[in-house]
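During the reporting period the student researcher (J.K.) took over the structure-prediction task from the postdoctoral fellow and processed the backlog of single-chain submissions. One of the processed entries is reproduced below for the supervisory committee.
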Amino acid sequence: MSTSTIQTGILGIGLQEGLLLKPVSYPWAYELYHQAVANTWFPHEVQLGEDLADFARMTDQERHALTFLLSYFNPSELLVNKALAFGVYPYLRSAECHLYLAKQMWEEANHCMAFEYVLETFPIDRAAAYDAHIGVPSMAAKEQFEISYLRRMTEQTLDITSIEGKQDFVRNLVAYNVILEGIWFYSGFVVALSFRQRNLLRNFGALIDWVVRDESLHLKFGINLVLTVLEENPDLQTDEFADEIRQMILDAVALEERYNNDLLPTGILGLNADYVNGYVRYLADRRLEELGFAPAFHAVNPAKWMATANDTLQLVNFFESINTAYEVDARAH
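J.K. obtained the following structure tokens:
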């Protein structure tokens, strides 16, 4: 593998790369770092114990849906951290990007601990929840999809000076930032927050609000990074590579639809798999458009309530409307 260092652009390898913060080359990354720091929160600030009475009166189908979500969210947060540590951080030469990624990795760990807090509070079979991400075929298939991209980043160091290495870098970004965090996580969020729509698990809903707020920044960082790499490396902008990236997203939609059929096999009050899958197709269209593609499904958002029920984020216009209501400092004022 070549160990040469890229002299210009966001991609590069070298121990002396990214050691100077100023002048900032990518202001979007620098601003996202400050926003992420301002958004810092801790799981035990949420009084989940107050939701226990709600959990007790939920139906078996509702408890199944909640457990299924935790079975997926918990290991996936740690999987994202592996993708960042092995597949993104080492290949960037930008100090401001390194700062943001360090905060994002802390946030993924915090999300994992948040879901552990839910498992500790509600009478959920932890062993069954842990085993599901391997034992449920639709859930395991999603995990293997992600691992297939991460494996390239962990089993060998990419030659980031080559077209093939740059393509693998972009593939990993799309798999984790766009698909896992930008589609699959949001699909879970609409189910998690649907309980609050019926006046159930309101504190759990508040915890999910904070997770969603973090994920909105992760998604914004990832899409900005993909677009920056493509802009700085026009040799990547081929029809073949574009078709491959688009197909990745379409394949991910099919995996998510099968997963949602297992998540909601008979539906719960006000929600079924078809409804959530409609939202998945809507999300996929938005992510395709953000990457410069035409929409694939031309889907209408069936969950417009998400834009108002969750006051930390406007899903339709999240790039323009990151809410700062819960910031822990006032540096922007």
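The committee noted the following: Residues 60 and 268 are 10 Å apart (CA to CA).
J.K. will present the remaining backlog at the next meeting.
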